[in-house]
Amino acid sequence: MSVLVRAVLLIAPVLAAASGAAAGPQQTVLEGVVGPAPTITLTKDGVEVTRLDPGQYTIRVDDRADSHNFHLFGPGVNERTGVEFVGQQTWTVMLQAGDYTYQCDPHATAMRGTFRVGAPSTPPVPQVKPLVGTVGPGKTIVLRTGSGTRAKALTAGRYRITVRDRTARDNLHLVGPGVNRRTGVRFRGTVRWTITLRAGTYRYRSDATKRLRGSFRVIASAHAHGG
Ligand SMILES: [Cu+2]
What we know:
Blueprint: H1 3-22, E1 28-34, E2 40-44, E3 47-48, E4 51-52, E5 55-63, E6 71-74, E7 77-80, E8 87-95, E9 98-103, E10 112-117, E11 128-135, E12 141-145, E13 153-155, E14 157-165, E15 173-176, E16 179-182, E17 189-197, E18 200-205, E19 213-219
Parallel strand pairs: 1-5, 4-10, 11-14, 13-19
Antiparallel strand pairs: 1-2, 2-3, 5-8, 6-7, 6-9, 9-10, 11-12, 14-17, 15-16, 15-18, 18-19
C-alpha cells in the first residue's frame, strides 16, 4: 500500500465525520414514556416539555403497556405507537410554530399533555390558574377565581386552590371529576391544593352544614392559538 493511499484511508473517515457534523446542528432528543401506570410524559433532559423552538427533533418513545399508546400530533406531525405495541420507537419530527398534543388514544381525557412550539417571545401557556376557596367565619362558603369573582364556569386545566378555612365548625369539601379533597371540619388554616379540573360539574360544600354549598361547571379547554 502506498503512502498516499494509506493517507487517504486515514483522512477519509475524518472528512466524512466533519461533513456530517456540518450538515446540521445536533438534534435535540425528547423522551416520551407511556405506561405501565396510566401516565404519559414528554420530557427534555428530564423536564416536562412545555415550549420548544421550531426545528427538527428526535423523539424516543418508550411504550411500556399493551393497553396504552403514545400519539403525538400537531402542525405537520402525526406519529403514534400501536395500543398493543410494547417497546421503543424513535421518530424524527419537524416541529413548527403551533400547539402540539401527546396522548394515549384510549384514555385521551386523562392521559394527555400539550406543549407549544414557537419563538421564546411567545407568551407561555398559563400552566396553573389560581382559585381561592373560603369557608367561614360564620356560615359562609365561596370559591372564587383569581380575579375575585365567584367561580361559575371554568376552563379545564391545572388549578392551584388556596383554601382558607376560617372556622372550626365547617370545612371545605370539593368533589367533581377526578377530584375529592377536603379540609377537616375542626381544622382552621390555609391549605393549597394543585388539582386538574376536567369537563363536568364540581360541587363544594361544608360536610357539617348542608346549606353551605356551591358549584361550578368546567368546560373543555379549546386549543387557543394565541399570538
Ligand atoms: Cu391509555
